[in-house]
C-alpha cells in the first residue's frame, strides 16, 4: 500500500488501547484470542489494518478480560504451561 496525501491515517486516539504486557509464550498459550473470526476476516479480506481497528480493539479487550480471570484463578498453572511452550521448542508449538 502506497501512502499518499489522500490516505487517511487513524488518529492517536483511535489507535490508543490498553496494551497486553505479556510474553509471546503467554499469548501463544491462550489460543482463544486468535479465534476471533471478525478480526481475522477483516484483516484478510480488506488487507488494510486501518479498516480493522474496531475488531482489533475487541480482540484486545477480550484478551485483557481473559488474562485478568487467569490471574485471579489459575495464574501459576497458566504460567507453567506458557513456560513449557517457551522452552520446549523454538516455534512454541503445541506438539
UniProtKB/TrEMBL annotation:
Give me the segments passing through the membrane: none
Q: What does UniProt give as GO cellular component?
A: mitochondrion
Give GO terms for biological process.
Answer: mitochondrial electron transport, NADH to ubiquinone
**Which keywords are on file for this protein?**
Disulfide bond, Electron transport, Mitochondrion, Repeat, Respiratory chain, Transport
Q: Where in the cell is it found?
A: Mitochondrion
Question: What main location does UniProt list?
Answer: mitochondrion
Q: Domain of life here?
A: Eukaryota
Q: Which family does it belong to?
A: Belongs to the complex I NDUFA8 subunit family.
Free-text function comment from the UniProt entry: Accessory subunit of the mitochondrial membrane respiratory chain NADH dehydrogenase (Complex I), that is believed not to be involved in catalysis. Complex I functions in the transfer of electrons from NADH to the respiratory chain. The immediate electron acceptor for the enzyme is believed to be ubiquinone.
Tell me the protein's name. Answer: NADH dehydrogenase 1 alpha subcomplex subunit 8
